[in-house]
Amino acid sequence: MLHPPFSRRPVNGHTPSRDNLPSIVATMDNHTEQSLRLLDKIKQSLATPESTSAEHVQVLADISRLQLAVETPLETIYRIGHQTWQNACAGVSVDVQELASARDADVVFLVRIMRVIVALGLCTESGANGYKANSKTQIMTIPQGIASFKSWFDIFTPTAAKLPEYMRSQHYQNPTQSTDSAFAYANGSEFWKHLTDTPEHSHIFNDFMATRRQGRPSWYDIYPVNRELLLSCSNANKNPQPEADVLIVDVGGNRGHDLVKLRAKYPGLVGKMILQDLPEVIAHASFEPDDGKVIEAMVHDFFQPQPVRRIYSLS
Q1: Considering the chain, what is the average pLDDT of its residues?
Q2: Which H or E run contains 63?
Q3: For residue 122, with 0-12 CB atoms within 10 Å meaning exposed, 13-18 middle and 19 or more buried, which class applies?
Q4: pTM metric for this prediction
Q5: What phi and psi, each to the nearest 5 degrees, are found at residue 272?
Q6: Measured distance CA(94)–CA(207) in Å, rounded
């Protein structure tokens, strides 16, 4: 049985009551020394002009821990609870052109939305009912930002809204079949069938997959490509197989963006690159002539046996 937030279960050794509840929810935990150590660590990290992606992730984690240490329990649950409405307003802000052309839009209503968007840092208030773009605004106007937000809101938010209900209906058992997943429960079919039956969502999701790694490390930035792939080619030449000329198979590789970038970064790699995905995705995969000589698009469902034996990348 799940316990409600204000049950009489002990919290840090103390049993909440209506008398001491205000002090519990409105008082910071006594983490002053921890907070100061985190603050010093964050300052040192920010003083380093160039950092690795791992160091960048670490400083963000430290900032999150600092916020948790400083805010009261009540502020924490309010922040989490308000995220639903903040995210909804952020989703509205993606439709910039629609908002800009809505001549009959209620100004008061738009201002209310913009207040939340400003608070989220997605734009800057320049005056009374005036706003200007910042770096966060710009990310929401390029394909990567638009596809990300539309994917999260149009495709995945309905599942998130149904998740508590789904978990109760399953008696909190871990699903073992995609047809019994939270997505299937919320949408009436499992994820891949839903995309097939809903072309608009399929288009949004494919755009998201094609752009989601932009500005972030890809697998070939971490994997020892020169050593492992060149070694694989050498072994294949010593022990010829029907697939010996195949360098790599990108399983579920969308429209081939990873393979194109891999070729650009490692032009010395030799061998065919196989792109595999569902028919409706492969139909939109196109390459420049040089890439097209090396990358071969193949229709394949990755839930079925793999027809090509080689090194695989699961995108």
Answers
A1: 80
A2: helix 53-70
A3: buried
A4: 0.65
A5: -75, 145
A6: 15
Half-sphere exposure of 245 (CA within 13 A, CB side): 6
**Cα end-to-end span (Å), the chain:** 39
User: In the prediction, which pLDDT does 191 show?
Assistant: 93
Token reading at 226 = 């020169």
SS3 content of the chain, % helix, strand, coil (to 5): 55, 10, 35
Q: Using only C-alpha atoms, what is the Rg of the chain?
A: 25
Contact 248, 312 (CB under 8 A): yes
C-beta of residue 297 within 8 angstroms of C-beta of residue 275: yes
Tally of CB atoms within 10 A around 36: 12
The pLDDT value recorded for residue 23 is 57
49 burial class (0-12, 13-18, 19+ CB within 10 angstroms)?
exposed
Q: Which residues contact 314 (CB under 8 A, 6 or more apart)?
A: 251, 252, 302
